[in-house]
TrEMBL record:
<protein>
    <submittedName>
        <fullName>NAD(P)-binding protein</fullName>
    </submittedName>
</protein>
<dbReference type="InterPro" id="IPR007419">
    <property type="entry name" value="BFD-like_2Fe2S-bd_dom"/>
</dbReference>
<dbReference type="InterPro" id="IPR036188">
    <property type="entry name" value="FAD/NAD-bd_sf"/>
</dbReference>
<dbReference type="Pfam" id="PF07992">
    <property type="entry name" value="Pyr_redox_2"/>
</dbReference>
<feature type="domain" description="FAD/NAD(P)-binding">
    <location>
        <begin position="4"/>
        <end position="315"/>
    </location>
</feature>
<dbReference type="InterPro" id="IPR051691">
    <property type="entry name" value="Metab_Enz_Cyan_OpOx_G3PDH"/>
</dbReference>
<dbReference type="GO" id="GO:0016491">
    <property type="term" value="F:oxidoreductase activity"/>
</dbReference>
<dbReference type="InterPro" id="IPR017224">
    <property type="entry name" value="Opine_Oxase_asu/HCN_bsu"/>
</dbReference>
<feature type="domain" description="BFD-like [2Fe-2S]-binding">
    <location>
        <begin position="375"/>
        <end position="427"/>
    </location>
</feature>
<dbReference type="InterPro" id="IPR023753">
    <property type="entry name" value="FAD/NAD-binding_dom"/>
</dbReference>
<dbReference type="InterPro" id="IPR041854">
    <property type="entry name" value="BFD-like_2Fe2S-bd_dom_sf"/>
</dbReference>
<keyword id="KW-0560">Oxidoreductase</keyword>
<dbReference type="Pfam" id="PF04324">
    <property type="entry name" value="Fer2_BFD"/>
</dbReference>
């Protein structure tokens, strides 16, 4: 069959989609920026590392091993392109950079499943750009990929499930956790129980992590608010307060901090390809419109956390569902019973994901309280004060208008790190609803590309 199916991402969603397609005789091309499959949750260690699956994945060791074994089994029927960065997309073409050769490539697709996951959601505090301060996701990568922790006296902060998963993983690795500063309240998590129990296995893990952390004597503070980090050439401590207290009421000495407020979907490529977006109230984010995993662009599907944050089990199911949509479009057999079962289970995980937004609520008062000196866009060194001045002195009322005036979101990350914070601050300062200030338009290159790519492009066009 002359129909080129491409999958972007070889995490749980991408691997699940590939498996379903191969089962029906489709030979997909799978692209991944990383050198090995697995995504973040099943991230594999370098070849010369010898940690066991249990050490790497904990509770998820058996599932991780099974998923990765199934992936290896279909390799003869897949064109796998690791170390390939997608830096642009237009029409039915992906523009790739092979990071090993290095070489520029173009790849045509007839059907495309984007399963490139999510990234940390960041709300900055004063001093957060000091060396020794990481996102929660980066701290987890250090442990999973390189077998190291980020410091000798560590504070973990923010909220979301990753906060406690990472804390438990660091505890098991022998790290010295000075404190966990949870933005959420304990009652927030209790009140969300009904929705969370739609994924009982995940809830059990969370309770276990919390119990083990308390048993080990790790300090856990609820309703904690980060104020500022101390340090000159490196972080030396964190000022914080509890909700209702005055700022900087407390101080913890530390040499490293990891923080984040849940995850946000990676949606730059769907944006470049012309997908229609809508503002999702529960996720507090702009997401592509979907109908059974299909976007408003024919032949383009989303799966995994890139279509909404619901966890690894939902990611696998959505990957399979996206693959089934492609199979149906090609008049290949798809079990109605299996499809109905997938929809039913996805419904449970969607309810669970809404429960997470209640258990770990978004810091809605952040924009009102962030100090003027806090760097919001670190690529361009744009502070909260710069954004406020641009709004009130130049009349900026929309994300791209603000970007044009003060360069917020114009740097190397193209707003991947700072867009949430800019969005919140702009809405607050203009006194507009959060969905009324728009979103940053994605632009190529999505990530920095080496000079060799630019040279090859110049050669091709002259």
């Amino acid at each position: 069959m002359n129909h080129n199916v491409v999958i972007l991402g070889s995490g749980p969603a991408g691997m699940s989609a590939a498996k379903a397609l191969v089962a029906q005789g489709i030979h997909p091309t799978v692209i991944d920026e990383n050198g090995k499959s697995g995504g973040q949750i099943y991230r594999q260690q370098p070849d010369n590392f010898t940690r066991t699956k249990k050490q790497l994945y904990g509770f998820d060791a058996k599932e991780a091993e099974q998923t990765l074994d199934e992936w290896q089994a279909i390799q003869p029927h897949v064109t796998y392109l690791p170390h390939h960065l997608v830096w642009n997309a237009a029409g039915n073409t992906l523009y790739l950079f092979d990071q090993q050769r290095p070489k520029y490539k173009e790849l045509h697709w007839d059907s495309l499943i984007i399963a490139n996951g999510a990234t940390d959601r960041i709300l900055p505090f004063s001093g957060w750009t000091l060396p020794g301060i990481y996102t929660l996701g980066a701290a987890q990568i250090a442990l999973k990929n390189q077998g190291c922790v980020i410091g000798s006296e560590i504070v973990l902060a923010g909220n979301g499930p990753l906060l406690y998963l990472l804390a438990w993983q660091y505890l098991k690795a022998g790290a010295n956790l000075k404190a966990i500063l949870d933005y959420s309240g304990f009652m927030d998590q209790c009140k969300a129980t009904t929705k969370l129990l739609h994924a009982p296995k995940v809830v059990y893990k969370g309770v276990y992590f919390l119990t083990e952390l308390k048993r080990a004597g790790v300090k856990i503070v609820y309703n904690a608010r980060l104020d500022s980090a101390n340090g000159d050439k490196k972080v030396t401590g964190i000022h914080w307060h509890k909700e209702g207290e005055s700022k900087a009421s407390h101080y913890i000495e530390c040499d490293s901090i990891a923080f984040g407020y849940g995850l946000r979907s990676e949606t730059q490529i769907p944006d470049l390809l012309g997908c229609e977006f809508y503002y999702h109230e529960q996720y507090r984010d702009w997401l592509p419109k979907l109908d059974n995993q299909q976007t408003t662009v024919p032949g383009l599907y989303l799966a995994g956390d890139g279509s909404g944050i619901a966890g690894v089990y939902a990611a696998k199911l959505s990957g399979e569902k996206a693959a089934n949509q492609i199979l149906s479009s090609l008049n290949l057999p798809v079990s109605e019973h299996a499809s109905s079962a997938i929809d039913k289970r996805l419904g449970h995980y969607t309810t669970f994901s809404y429960g997470l937004t209640k258990a770990f609520p978004f810091p809605t008062t952040w924009a009102a309280n962030v100090s003027d000196d806090t760097v919001i866009c670190r690529c361009e060194n744009v502070t909260a004060g710069d954004i406020r001045a641009t709004v009130h002195n130049k009349g900026a009322e929309e994300m791209n208008q603000l970007k044009a005036h003060c360069r917020s979101g114009m740097g190397r990350c193209q707003g991947r790190v700072c867009s949430t914070a800019i969005h919140e601050l702009l809405a607050y300062e203009t006194n507009k609803p959060i969905d009324a200030v728009g979103r940053i338009r994605s632009q190529s290159p999505l990530k920095p590309i080496p000079i060799i790519v630019e040279e090859e492009l110049a050669d091709e066009h002259h």
